[in-house]
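Most newcomers find our protein records easier to grasp once they have seen one. Read left to right, the backbone structure tokens trace the chain's path through space. Nothing more is needed to start thinking about how sequence determines fold. An example says more than a description, so a record of this kind follows:
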Amino acid sequence: MVPLLLVLLLVLILFGAGFALKILWWIAIVVLVLWLIGFIARPKNGSGRWYRW
């Protein structure tokens, strides 16, 4: 019974990690797209940076 519970716990941990990593990949893609849009649509005057930092 204990090995079965350990295997089920391992499956749940791996499923949770995979789900979290997939969400992190989507967040990274969204941030990259927003950065590219800001880079393309930057103001023409000044230093050319669209961000303040």
Observations:
- The radius of gyration is 21 Å.
- The mean pLDDT is 77.
- The helical segments are 2-40.
